[in-house]
Amino acid sequence: MKYNFDEIIDRSGTSATKMESLPKGCPDDALPLWVADMDFACAEPILKALHERIDKKIFGYTMYDTDECLGAVLNWYKKRYGWEEQKENLFFCGGIVSAYAVLLNLLTKEGEGVVIQRPIYYPFTMKANSNGRQIVDSPLIYADGNYTIDFDDLDKKMAEPNNKVLVFCSPHNPAGRVWTEEEIRKVVDICKKYDKWIICDEIHCDLLRCGMTFHPILKVAPDYADRIAVCTAPSKTFNLAGMKTSNIVIHNKELQAAWKELIGGKLSMNGAGTLGLTAMIAAYNEGEEWLEQLKEYLDGNFAYIDAFLKEHLPKAHMVPSEGTYLAWIDFNGYVDGDAEKLEEIMQKKARVALDEGYIFGDAGRGFERINIATPRSVVEDCMDRILKAFKEEKLV
């Protein structure tokens, strides 16, 4: 079927975080393009499956580790990426941030180092800090308007005995890079050299620009699978964040046992939601047509913003997006690192609620992350508001 991504859906009255819990300082009428969920209706097969499950009338305890559920996940990996995985290596968690926190507690001790590559998804920093771990930054290189990995610096950071884990974001949020096989192999080889763990966040793996190819880390480096934990989920791909379902891939048998003991034995966090599993199974089994149409629509939104900036705000630069639905825009040509000024303009003048670049680390100062998984008319409104605000500030 043909999906209508131009449809404006009223999300009021749904307790939507994106709409009803705007970033501090934003006026109530700010256009919400911050937190990463979509303003698009879910794929019809997902909605149909949910309606059919509701008609069963009972929502008792529901198992994750069934052939139907695990088969849907593993078939998706194989079909989309040629990634062959085994059922016994797949584990449930209610979300990737939760899984990340659990893995930190299993793989590190308080005071030990966790290496990240800023600018990076800010909960990686928050959860490490709140669990008493030491964040160690190996920043990406920003040059010629794009990002690459600083392999020399990463080698130095991973060589430190106190640094136990690398958090590898693939595709990268917010930089939008889809790492090549060669880049992933180099990252793995550095960690292998020092026998360090990798927690790999692959939540955005399905959300690529048309023509891009995603390389699962466990397919690129099966020889190091024993020291890698991979986090995937249908939440970003199919707009199911509220369903609280993610799939964690662990090969190491000792870590598997520790995961089961902590998640199930100590915390009782191993229970999956009935409707979450229903939605995930339907998404992986029948959601591919919707996803392919979505990718084309997102490509159009990115192209619109890029053209708009080049015409109206030429000193701003949208970093080329290879993956995610998050536009990462460098406004330093106008604010020269003054993140507070930029935030004031966006929130008070433009009345747009975005993720300010500085929350991703100092390397993000002067940047904005804009969630463009929204109808084109909303993207146009956002850019018009920003341009008007910059004109009022006499920046253009």
From TrEMBL:
- What are its cofactors? pyridoxal 5'-phosphate
Q: What class of enzyme is it?
A: lyase
User: Which keywords does UniProt give here?
Assistant: Aminotransferase, Lyase, Pyridoxal phosphate, Transferase
- What is this protein's record name? cysteine-S-conjugate beta-lyase
Q: Which residues form the Aminotransferase class I/classII large domain?
A: 35-386
Q: Which Pfam families match?
A: Aminotran_1_2
Annotated family? Belongs to the class-II pyridoxal-phosphate-dependent aminotransferase family. MalY/PatB cystathionine beta-lyase subfamily.
